[in-house]
Automatic annotation (TrEMBL):
DUF1285 domain segment(s): 32-98, 99-185
Residue ranges of the region described as Disordered: 1-35
One Pfam family linked to the record: DUF1285_C
Lineage of the species this protein comes from: Bacteria, Pseudomonadati, Pseudomonadota, Alphaproteobacteria, Rhodobacterales
InterPro entries xrefs: DUF1285 (IPR010707), DUF1285_beta_roll_sf (IPR023361), DUF1285_C (IPR048342), DUF1285_N (IPR048341)
Transmembrane segments: none
Protein's recorded name: DUF1285 domain-containing protein
Organism for this UniProt entry: Paracoccus pacificus
Domain of life per record: Bacteria
Length: 189
């Protein structure tokens, strides 16, 4: 089946190919400054990030990790929606839960550094907090802030490792410390 780079699209409608081409042509090292880009909205793209972190284009999983990383680098969250942006184009995409999955963590006594499914790393702290939402059935859903209002769901094995490292904090809540900040793992503030 074709993936996001195998389809030849010859239309004026936004497409994954046009967005990827514009993003790649920037040729910069490091993440693009999407927070500075405010292009006009060009419509919605048939792209979705599923709850498990899999990216889909027109109903087909995007099988190339480099393409997913490229799209992830130009992801922006504003007004309650997710967009892919370039300096000249902004298209809406669907995200079922969080756009990223934290798939590993290096847990040190004074810091916790997470790695996501798209290769981003972030050290939790005051600017990049860990938050735990508790579903109606009592299931914890832990997240870590990655960048620019984008969050990663912490996968189960990594959350279990955090729970194993947890210690009592203020008010007796169990949690972890990173960069001088305490993060409760039970959903407490």
């Amino acid at each position: 089946m074709p993936d996001a780079t195998d389809t030849d699209v010859k239309s004026e409608k936004p497409s994954a190919e046009n967005i990827a081409s514009a993003a790649a042509s920037a040729g910069r090292k490091g993440p693009p400054p999407v927070h500075l880009w405010n292009p006009p909205f060009c419509g919605d793209l048939d792209m979705e990030i599923r709850r498990d972190g899999t990216w889909f284009y027109q109903g087909t999983p995007i099988g190339r990790p480099a393409m997913v990383q490229l799209f992830a680098s130009i992801l922006k969250f504003e007004d309650g929606r997710h967009f892919l942006v370039t300096p000249v184009e902004k298209v809406g995409i669907r995200v079922e839960d969080a756009p990223f999955i934290a798939v590993d963590a290096e847990i040190a006594p004074d810091r916790i550094t997470f790695t996501t499914n798209v290769g981003d790393t972030v050290t939790a702290g005051p600017d990049d907090p860990i938050r735990v939402r508790v579903d109606a059935d009592g299931t914890p859903r832990p997240y870590v802030h990655i960048r620019r209002d984008l969050w990663a769901l912490i996968d189960r094995k990594t959350f279990y490792r955090l729970a194993d490292a947890a210690r009592p904090g203020p008010g007796g809540a169990l949690g972890v410390m990173s960069k001088g900040a305490f993060f409760a793992l039970d959903g407490a503030a």
